Amino acid sequence: MKDKIHKTNAARHLDEMGIAYELIPYEVDEENLSAQHVAASLGQNLEQVYKTLVLKGDKTGFFVCVIPGAAELDLKAAARVSGNKSCEMLHVKDLMPVTGYIRGGCSPLGMKKHFPTFVHEDCILWDFIYVSAGKRGLQLKINPQDLLRASHAQTAALTA
Question: Domains of the chain, with CATH numbers?
């Protein structure tokens, strides 16, 4: 018998908006929370598995960047699109108090409060992408346009 998948805040947010998605479970490796591990566990293309990064800008405060799993965030580009001169990654210890999520389970949807959100522009090249559903071991399979609408995000060039 399959374990019941419990809906996360991110999934409930999508339900409220009437947006289609799939919840896809995968095996968690506590030693390897990388997008590469998630993609391999799902048997999916790494370019379609996106990671959610939370940053703090020097002017605007917290904001969110969602980028392809293999990519590195360009901090200068992130600062520029978010209206900051500089920005830095949020420390792991601050992730839960700020977002309500833990490392390896941070979704761009359903955070404690909404933050400005930017998704790497290549997302629209795919019929669907994967983002964290808000807990380790669970991904959302979603159309990128639907993710942009649900997260009130804009696309931007975010990677080096």
Answer: 9-156 (3.90.960.10)
Nearest to 69 by CA among 43, 39, 101, 29: 39
Whether the pTM exceeds 0.85: the reply is: yes
Paired tokens of 68: 């392809």
Give the C-alpha separation, 24 to 64, whole Å.
22
Report which DSSP code applies to 74.
Answer: -
Neighbours of 54 (CB within 10 A): 21
pLDDT for res 4: 66
Q: Is 84 helix (H, G, I), strand (E, B) or coil?
A: coil
Residue 99 C-alpha from the chain's centroid: 12
User: Read out DSSP for 73-129?
Assistant: B-HHHHHHHTT-S-EEEPPHHHHHHHHS--TT---SSS-SS---EEEEGGGGGSS-E
